[in-house]
């Protein structure tokens, strides 16, 4: 997360992620996360003519898992004001550095958006109070057992390290342990069976609530920092118990054609399906106990109608206040640890749209899922011939994540077996 400021000048926020807003004014610092965009008006005075000022973008180390000792937290730029009405782009004509000073305010330790209630869209757009259906993405950091693909949650890894338990080692030997075996059912629109939902499985007018026991990870428990990585595992981010793996030689959209609503999506990909045109709710649930994440959805506007703490059970959702009159529209929303957001979406653009964390290495670590919109329309899509011409160049395995069939997981297992021999 960054804090943006201009020395000795306040900021008025006028736009967020492409939406013009009546935003907070007279800010000393504007905080924003990866992938977010703001426009601000810098308030100046006549006496500023001919002067220059530092603008600062300071990273917040409280939002990091760890911080290098020699990291430079603040990036500097210079705003130079001319003495007339001319508009100049480029380096300051002054050879001397600004003599301005930073605001004395202390930096907040919260890695969250500015108050969403302080941002009101200028062009009003309300959303329906009732929706056609709902789906959920629940994310958490955990560990994948390399040999079996089983999952160890962050809390279990921490407990294992604290208790020096042999449970994890037994699991790695026999490959039977998987924390999700004890889990409750997934929300109807998020089942990872590999089969997309038939449109008849989501009834129009159904309550916009998840199932009563939809969380399939343990209750959220705050942990100070990541636990040690258990032997034989690799740290991953999981969405609906699945860790995204990029397969450039097997595009998702190709797998969905031409079967429509009965298409099969890879069982390794978390997915939510909105079968027909209409409004749907998407629950974005951050099960990480302390880390905030910037959630980004491609193609579809996210209308932020509610924010809650903990898990989106029927009880917690019943206590939410939904904002359906001109809610804030964003394409990247920050959700704090142990909380969730309800975004209302108009499923009017057919396709397979990616939802992911906008922190690059979190995406690389598996933090992504697919929102499938109108599969019956998608099956009518025609893949361009130039795209199809790439297919003959594909060589097994089709789930490779690199050229010439390179598969990191297989190579890792081979190396591990070599270690066992040695």
From TrEMBL:
Plastocyanin-like domain segment(s): 2-59, 264-376
InterPro entries, alphabetized: Cu-oxidase_2nd, Cu-oxidase_C, Cu-oxidase_fam, Cupredoxin
GO molecular function: copper ion binding; oxidoreductase activity
One Pfam family recorded for the sequence: Cu-oxidase_2
Protein family (similarity comment): Belongs to the multicopper oxidase family.
Descriptive protein name: Uncharacterized protein
Organism of this sequence: Austropuccinia psidii MF-1
């Amino acid at each position: 997360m960054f804090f943006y400021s201009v020395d000795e000048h306040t900021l008025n926020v006028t736009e967020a992620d492409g939406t013009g807003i009546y935003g907070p004014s007279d800010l000393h610092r504007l905080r924003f996360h990866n992938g977010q965009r703001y426009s601000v008006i810098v308030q100046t005075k006549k006496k500023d003519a001919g002067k220059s000022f530092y603008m600062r973008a300071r990273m917040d180390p409280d939002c990091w898992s760890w911080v290098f000792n020699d990291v430079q937290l603040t990036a500097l730029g210079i705003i130079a004001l001319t003495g007339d009405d001319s508009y100049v782009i480029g380096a300051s004509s002054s050879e001397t550095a600004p003599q301005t000073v930073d605001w004395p305010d202390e930096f907040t330790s919260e890695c969250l958006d500015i108050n969403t209630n302080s941002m009101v869209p200028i062009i009003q757009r309300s959303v329906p109070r009732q929706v056609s259906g709902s789906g959920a993405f629940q994310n958490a950091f955990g560990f994948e057992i390399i040999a079996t693909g089983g999952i160890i949650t962050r809390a279990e890894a921490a407990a294992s390290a604290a208790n020096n338990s042999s449970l994890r080692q037994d699991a790695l030997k026999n490959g039977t342990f998987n924390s999700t075996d004890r889990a409750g059912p997934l929300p109807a629109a998020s089942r990872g069976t590999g089969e997309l939902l038939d449109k008849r499985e989501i009834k129009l007018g159904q309550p916009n609530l998840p199932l009563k026991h939809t969380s399939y990870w343990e209750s959220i428990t705050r942990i100070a920092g990541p636990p040690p990585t258990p032997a034989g595992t690799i740290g991953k981010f999981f969405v609906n118990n699945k860790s995204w793996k990029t397969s450039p030689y097997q595009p998702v959209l190709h797998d969905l054609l031409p079967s429509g609503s009965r298409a099969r999506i890879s069982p390794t990909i978390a997915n939510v399906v909105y079968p027909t045109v209409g409004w749907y709710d998407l629950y974005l649930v951050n099960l990480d106990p302390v880390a905030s994440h910037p959630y980004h959805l491609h193609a579809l506007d996210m209308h932020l109608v509610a924010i809650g703490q903990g898990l989106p059970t029927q009880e917690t959702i019943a206590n939410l206040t939904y904002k359906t009159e001109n809610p804030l529209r964003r394409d990247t929303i920050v959700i704090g640890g142990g909380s969730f957001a309800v975004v209302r979406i108009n499923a009017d653009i057919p396709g397979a749209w990616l939802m992911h964390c906008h922190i690059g290495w979190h995406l690389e670590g598996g933090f992504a899922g697919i929102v499938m919109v109108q599969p019956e329309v998608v099956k009518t899509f025609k893949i361009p011939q130039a795209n199809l011409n790439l297919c003959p160049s594909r060589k097994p395995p089709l789930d490779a994540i690199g050229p010439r069939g390179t598969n990191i997981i297989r190579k890792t297992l081979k190396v591990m077996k070599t270690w066992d021999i040695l």
